[in-house]
Predict the 3D structure of the following.
Amino acid sequence: MNIKKLGSRSFPYFLILPSILIMICTVLYPVFLTLMYSFQRYQLTKPYARKFIGTQNYVDILKDGNFYDVLINTGIVVGIILIVGIIFSFLTALILNRQNKLTNILTAIAIIPWVLPPVVNGVIWKFIFYPEFGLVNKILYYFNLTDSPILWLNTRYGALIIIGLIVAWRTIPFCTILLLANIKAIPEDIFEAAEVDGATTFEQIKSIMIPILFPTFLIVITNLVLTGINVFDEIVALVGFRKLGETYMIYNYNQTFSFFNIGYGSAISYTITIICGILGLIYIKVLKRRTA
């Protein structure tokens, strides 16, 4: 093919054509196919009973009591991730913002949890909270704080709290980097002028730094919420597919791949997508309002 005949206008589209084809095959087609499945009664165990049922799958989700249990579980995990993630991300960014000989080393250490794959993160923390020879129980034994092993991962709320903590631990480094980059972008003259006026360090952080970092905090919050909704590997590594740690993604996986209910599972996937889309719209509106 003579490339010159393509013309100056069509040549750029010719170059990105392979990428467009890959996106259609790996993203758009699966998204469209999942949407079609969500309107069908489709079980792999009954392939010949497949038929179009409209929005019945979505109605069944809202009628399912397990869905609301999953909703509560996901809300607990997201809430813990938000509280721990925001507080410790900001504190870590403030610590790393102070220039000293250990700053580079501390920055490298702080990034380590972010580098670990989620499943490895889950396995590590599973051994830490293991009932018999886990690190936490050994510390409690050493200080005579308990006489019998504590089953940290055998209760619903205990498992959810630990899941929230370890996912927050993995997400904090990324949020810290976002906050640290924007803290360093704030002109030093502002803080120097505030210090001359008698403002304390706490007042500078409260009245200057936090308002300037508000858009960054919104990005951090959005990232933490989406991470909490989509957490999967850590839960599987910690408690498997048991009900006590079942969140949206585990619920979706069980319905789709354990019970082979493809139609119902596809509807759950789009329910999660709708929730994430609503959160995204809220983020955009809040950001626009704050900018105005």
Notes: Residues 55 and 167 are 34 Å apart (CA to CA). The chain has a mean pLDDT of 86.
